Amino acid sequence: MAASVAGLILAGGAGTRFGGPKAFGRLPDGRSFLAACADTLAAAGVSPVLATLPVATAPAGEHGLEVLPLPATGLPMFESLRIGLGRLLGDIRWDRVVVFPVDHPLVRAETVRTLAATGTVAAIPVHRGKRGHPVMLARAVAEQVVAGALPGPTLREVLHAVGTVDVAVDDPGVTANCNMPEALAAALARGGSG
Length: 194
Hints:
alpha/beta, globular
């Protein structure tokens, strides 16, 4: 079977600054942040797609993506990353994974396709000189993260350790961190979509 690109949506946080889990925040078109991220990955041809979610949450019918409620509250994002990658590694079809924080729901599918096409061990999008999300990791990097060979404590350290390629994109969504309602409103006012 041909290799593909997997997607991991990190949506396991409680969203205290957002007023609730960001996975269920809403864009002006009515979609949840989780649905918007899933739609972007699907439009980019990414499969399989897994989303880590807060403990005991399971949204109904969220665009056919696999959901993985985390085992405990308050886990660091890096632990959520390790758990999600560990689950995805059970699928042998993919050789790259796009790691997509759910608080970046304005990213365009073309950006995901561009990152996936780099052929590097890790890639990060850059818009107007500023790094953003999502990031792309080769399967070998994901395996090292899960095995503890690249221990973090954050994804930033992993990216630094493996040597990341910056990829220029014309997508303000990559730097639109919608971690609070005001940040979403500001991103939309600057020309984001939603």
